[in-house]
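Run: sequence + flavin-adenine dinucleotide -> complex structure.
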Amino acid sequence: MSHSRPRVLIIGGGFGGLFCARRLSRADVDVTVLDRAAGHLFQPLLYQCATGKLSIGQISRPLREEFARHRNIRTLLGEAIELDPVARSVTALRPDETTFTVDYDVLVVAAGMRQSYLGNEQFAEWAPGMKTLDDALDIRQRLFTAFEIAETLPPGPERTSWLTFAVAGGGPTGVELAGQIREVATKTLAKEFHSIDPEEARVLLFDGGDRVLKTFAPALSLKANDTLRELGVELHFGVHVTDVRRDGITVTPKQGGPDQQFGTRTVLWTAGVEAVRFARHVAEVLGAETDRAGRITVGPDLTVAGHPEIFVIGDLAGREGLPGVAENAMQGGLHAASCIRRDLAGRPRRPYRYRDLGSAAYISHGHALLQVGPLRVSGYAGWVAWGLLHIAFLTGVSNRISTVATWLASIARTGRYHRAFMLGAGDRHDQRYTYSSWDLPEPAPEGN
Ligand SMILES: Cc1cc2nc3c(=O)[nH]c(=O)nc-3n(C[C@H](O)[C@H](O)[C@H](O)COP(=O)(O)OP(=O)(O)OC[C@H]3O[C@@H](n4cnc5c(N)ncnc54)[C@H](O)[C@@H]3O)c2cc1C
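>> structure
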C-alpha cells in the first residue's frame, strides 16, 4: 500500500462498511476497514444460528478473506474508542486491551447499533439480545440447556419455568426467534426426550403494540399473528416487560391495570436498539446532533455538518426516512464510496437517495412475508422468495452453497445440524458452567 494516496478509514465491516470498501477496491485510495469482530456478520440469519439451524461460519465471513484480492484494502481487528477530528486519527483497542492509532483523510463511520434495554441495563444479565455472534451462541446455549435441565427435574413449577421461553419485542427478530423456538420444541426435539414432552414448551411473545411486524402492511402482519398462534406462540399485546429476573418476568399493561408475573428461565430481548458506544463518542467530539437512539444527524450527502470528510452510514445515519435495514446500509456504503470517487475526480457529490426495495420477514417453516411496493406475498410463496433473497445477499459463495445444502437437508429431515453449544469448563473460574454458576456462591479468594 502506498501512503501518498488519500487514506479512507472505515469503522465497521457490516453491510455499510463492506459495500463501501468493495466499491473503493479499484479507486486510487488506500482503504482500512477496522472492525471489533474479525468477520462480516449476516445479521438477518442470526436467529437460525441461535436456534441451531446454521453454523457461525455459514453466517459470517472473515473480512481478511473477503478483501484478500484487493491490494488497496487492509483489514484491522480492533474496537474504535476515540476520534481526534483535528489530528484526523482514530484510536482503537486490540483484543489484549493495548491500543493503536490509525490516521485518515476520509472517515466512514459504519459501526451500527447495539441492543438497547431502554434504560434497564440490568435486564441484560438474564435476557441476551441478538446483535452479535456471541449473542447467537449465548441464546443457543440457553435454549438447548433449558430443555436439558427440564429433563432432570420432576414435574412442577420449576420444570415448567425451564420449559417457558419469553421473547420481548414483536419485530422481525422477536417473531423469528419465537417461531423457531416452537419449531425446535415441536419438531427438532419432539422425540428425543424421555421425561419431558418438549412440545409442551410455552413460548410467550410480548409487544407494546396490537400486532407483530408493525412495519409491514396490516394484512400481512395479521397473517403473521395467525401463523404464530397456529404454531403455538402465545401473543401478549399492549404490554411492556418491566422486570426481568433470574426466574421470571413482570409485564405491565400499557393502558394500566395490574402487573402480570410469568415464571421463566429463558428470556430473550429484542425490544430496542441504540447507537454503539463509539458512535455516541463521535457525536460528542464533533458536536453533532443525535436522535434519542443515538443516530447521528447527517446532511444530504451523509456527512456530518462541518465535516465533509466524515461520513456516517447504515443504521447510524440519522435522517428522516432512512430505515434500519441492510438495504439502507448497503446503499449508504455505495453512496459514500461514490462521493469519495467523485472528490478524486473533482466532480461534485450527489445527495443520497434511499431506494426502498421492499422487506421480508421469516415466521416459520413454509411461512414468510414479502412486501415490495404494492406487491404483498405471504405463506409458502413468501417463504421461497425470502430464501432466494437471503441467499443472494449472503457473503461468500461457499457460505451460499453450504447454507442452501443445510436448508435442503433440514427441510427433508426437520433436523438442526448445528445444535452444539458450550457450557464452559467447571474447573476454570473464567469458564465455569454458566448455567449452574448462577446458583453457586462466588469462589473463595485465592490463598484462603
Ligand atoms: C437479528 C437481526 C435480524 C435482522 N434482519 C434483517 C432483515 O431480515 N432484513 C434487513 O434488511 N435488515 C435486517 N436487520 C438489520 C440489518 O442487519 C442492519 O440494518 C444492518 O446490519 C446495518 O448495517 P450497518 O453496516 O449499519 O451495521 P452492522 O451491519 O451492524 O455493522 C456494524 C459493524 O461495526 C462493527 N463495530 C461496532 N462498533 C465498533 C467499534 N467501536 N469499532 C470497530 N468496529 C465496530 C461491528 O462489529 C459490525 O461488524 C437485522 C438485524 C438484526 C440484528
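>> summary
Residues 11-17, 34-37, 41, 43-44, 46-47, 79-80, 110-112, 130-131, 172-173, 276, 278, 314-316, 324-327, 329 surround flavin-adenine dinucleotide (CB under 6 Å). The chain has a mean pLDDT of 92.
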